[in-house]
Specification:
Length: about 525
């Protein structure tokens, strides 16, 4: 006879009461070793005696709680200790009672589907499209061990006749170095579920030892304009985030010719186009990367301290809970998309007691007009609680503010009517608020409508060549305390490139910013 009590909290530590727990186990109701499959319903917080044969029980948290994903996991006695095979469940002994404390979450794997490539699609698939190959992957998200032109550090030229930005060709072996994982954050879009909003979140889960505290990079893109992305309105449960282009309701199209613009936004920036992940890896880092994909230029809680604090907590709870990442060992669990169905493999049986981190080393990065969201984060703003339930979308700002170490300004163009003044003032204020902070700014001639250059000391600015050569010129500088660095490229210095000068900056700047040590 073993007594269990199960309790549930959210990532903020707030207790909530799901309707039930289900315990599945092999029981021995009478004398002898008779194994009987048994199901028991446990009331939250109420101890209950279970007749276990093999010191093992499978627990399921009921999922009717609005917006929460629920959990199913095993609890087993291993070497005299009770452990769970899901890190969001921690076990302690309270006298003779096995106390199971579960942290439930509000993110889940995004739904996926495989549609044969020649099959015509006539309606919203309402899931991410997957494709087979040597394995299974989201459309277009292959890790191809790319060659990266890593921007040198320092950037300034060492000769008088430069041909472009100085870089070193670096081969990145990223196959197996991590997994791109798409998650949904918020209310589940299933029949009968509450019709609250949910957001698509792309996450890079490194398959390396992360250490303590883990490094987290968040990236904000320019707004998803309705001219380029399928338009949707609150609560964003229609065409966002899975509706494809071309518009299949107008022109049915075979699956292999479809693009899902919201999902591909993340795939293009992180892996296929600008190669943010390989850039950072070429610089010697491999952090958790969080890429919020926002609907119809609406960021909702994603552009607030409270919203981002909750999102980072939720993503880390999910990744650590399912053992996709670890501070102690290279993870063995991985994302599986076999047959087009998203799951974690192995889904059970890995028992340990590694805690989910409550602090992290945060970098917020932003490109072009996405800088407005990074600037918004520099001060506290409320969430519209009538639209975004704080029980699902909000956390106290402290965890984010205390963990925030860097801002990477990637050709940021503040576009809220105040422009350069707001850009400079917010970055200056943010730097002064804590010692262990740094700003890394990278700007093209086209993007220099803002003024982060004033963050650095003119005495520490160097321009090469002294006289522009064929329009190629680069300036680089820092503040006296090195907490602010700044690089400006002439547009000619960023060519040749498959992109214009403005869009070349994110293709090279991440690999440079990641070469600096965290403050």
């Amino acid at each position: 006879m073993t007594r269990f009590v199960v309790r549930v909290r959210d990532v903020n530590g707030r207790e909530y009461t799901p309707p039930y727990f289900v315990a599945r186990y092999a029981s021995n109701p009478g004398p002898g070793e008779v194994r009987v499959p048994t199901l028991a319903r446990l009331a939250p917080g109420v101890p209950m005696d279970l007749h276990l044969v093999d010191d093992s029980v499978n627990l399921t948290v009921g999922t009717e709680a609005s917006g929460f994903s629920g959990e199913t996991f095993n609890v087993r006695k291993v070497g005299g200790r009770w452990l769970a095979d899901m890190r969001a469940a921690t076990i302690s002994m309270q006298g003779d009672t096995v106390a199971v404390d579960v942290v439930d979450g509000t993110v889940r794997l995004a739904p996926t589907v495989f549609i044969p490539p020649e099959q015509k699609v006539k309606e919203n698939p309402r899931a991410l499209l997957c494709e087979p190959g040597q394995g299974w992957i989201y459309y277009g998200a292959w890790l191809i061990n790319p060659t990266i032109s890593r921007l040198r550090n320092p950037v300034v030229f060492d000769n008088a006749t430069p041909a472009g930005y100085p870089s070193d060709v670096t081969k990145v072996n990223n196959d197996g170095s991590g997994s791109l994982v798409f998650l949904e954050w918020g209310f589940e879009a299933t029949p009968g579920a509450p019709r609250g909003p949910r957001f698509l979140i792309a996450v890079w889960a490194p398959r390396v030892v992360l250490g303590t505290p883990p490094q987290v990079v968040v990236f904000y893109t320019p707004p998803t304009k309705v001219t380029d992305y399928p338009a949707d309105a609150y609560p964003f449960r229609g065409r966002y985030p899975y509706y494809p282009r071309p518009d299949v309701a107008v022109a049915p199209t075979i699956a292999k010719d479809l693009v899902q613009p919201y999902a591909y936004l993340a795939i293009n920036y992180l892996i296929a186009g600008y190669k943010i992940i390989p850039q950072i890896q070429a610089a010697g880092r491999n952090p958790v990367v969080i890429f919020p994909v926002h609907p119809s230029a609406n960021w909702g809680p994603l552009g607030t301290q409270r919203g981002l604090s909750r999102l980072v907590k939720e993503v880390l709870r999910f990744l650590y809970g399912r053992k996709l990442v670890s501070n102690r060992v290279a993870p063995t669990a991985r994302l599986s998309l076999d047959a087009g169905r998203a799951s974690i493999f192995p889904s059970e049986g890995l028992f340990d007691d590694e805690p989910i981190p409550t602090r992290w080393a945060l970098t917020v990065s932003a490109f072009s007009n996405g800088i407005d969201r990074a600037l918004d984060l520099c001060t506290s703003h409320p969430i519209d609680e009538t639209l975004y339930d704080p029980a699902i979308f909000s956390s106290p700002e402290a965890a984010l503010v205390e963990s925030w170490r860097e801002i990477w300004d990637i050709d940021g163009v503040a576009d809220d009517g105040k422009g350069a003044e707001r850009h400079l003032r917010n970055l200056q204020t943010w730097l002064k608020e804590a010692e262990r902070r740094a700003v890394r700014s990278y700007h093209s001639g086209e993007g220099m409508r803002t003024a982060p250059r004033a963050l650095v000391d003119p005495a520490f600015v160097e321009t090469r060549p002294a006289k522009s050569y064929k329009g190629v010129r680069i300036s680089e500088g820092s503040s006296a305390d090195k907490r602010a660095t700044w690089v400006e490229f002439s547009d000619a210095a960023l060519q040749p490139s498959p992109y214009d000068a403005h869009h070349t900056v994110p293709a090279i700047a991440f690999g440079h910013a990641a070469q600096f040590a965290l403050p």
